[in-house]
Amino acid sequence: MPFLGEISALITALLWAFTSIIFTEASLRIGSVQLNINRLIAALTFLTITVFVFGLNYILSAEQYAFLAVSGIVGLAIGDGFLFKSFQTIGARFSMLIMALVPGITAILGYFFLHESLSLQTVIGMIVTVGGVSIVVLEKNNGNNARFKITQIGFFYGFMGAVCQAGGLILAKEAFNIGAINGFVATFIRIFTSVLVMLPFLLIIGRYKNPVRLYKHDLKSLALTIAGSIVGPFLGITFSLIAISNTKVGIASTLMATTPILLLPIIKILYKEKIPTVGIIGAVLAVLGVAVLFLS
């Protein structure tokens, strides 16, 4: 099928756009901590079925397991925890715009820890991305009728989520550098480790509520959690793998990074928000910066 990779990449970006909205609604109802662990458990269930039904090879070296395990804790347990707190505080549009910084942060971390080179084009791409995000962050009113407005603490949550996700990617890349790994298997190991660490810790400190009791009184939260887990970690990963395997990684990554732009009409339709011109310009600049970075 012509342009299968490019189409899959755009579908991935659209899935992530809807995922951010779904998880924003869910985090407002049950909290970011509860949502993070519950959606990981749900995604782990789907991935377990996929790995064992299709007989995917999960025999890796101890070093690969270690890198993927730490990657999951840093990127999913901690990073997504910050991201969901950001959803809860400043909403999907601003949070996903801040997450556009992930490629640039990853490039910087790759320079220091993986000894990857930073070309002039890469640096320009990072500057343009940061500029686009800064325009929106520093814009004072963020839209008079906006449901969410950006705040310092909200930006901090989003930025820490971006840093942790970038760190998780670097650690995962180390595992892939050692040897070939199926993408679903890698995701399974990352999520399994995150749940293994997070669930006992949250139970000990009393931050995890009984999901049966919680969802029994709030079926909408259950629907949102399951829907988000299917649309995001499961389908999103599937289409991203199809994209990367059927077109150049740079092209696929750039198209998948269009989520902040795709969110604009979705938010306008769902929440009747008037997106300020500066918000549109900032989102477009951020995505252009990501394109320059990936295609360098």
Please give a structural write-up.
The protein is mainly α and 296 residues long. Helices cover 81% and strands 0% of the residues. α1 packs across α2 (32-53) and α1 (4-30) crosses α3. It has twelve helices and no strands. It starts with a helix and ends with a helix. It has helices spanning 4-30, 32-53, 62-98, 102-113, 120-138, 152-178, 183-204, 211-216, 219-246, 249-256, 259-271, 277-294.
Short overview:
This protein is mostly helical and 296 residues long. It has helices spanning 4-30, 32-53, 62-98, 102-113, 120-138, 152-178, 183-204, 211-216, 219-246, 249-256, 259-271, 277-294.
Please outline the helices and strands.
Elements: H1 4-30, H2 32-53, H3 62-98, H4 102-113, H5 120-138, H6 152-178, H7 183-204, H8 211-216, H9 219-246, H10 249-256, H11 259-271, H12 277-294
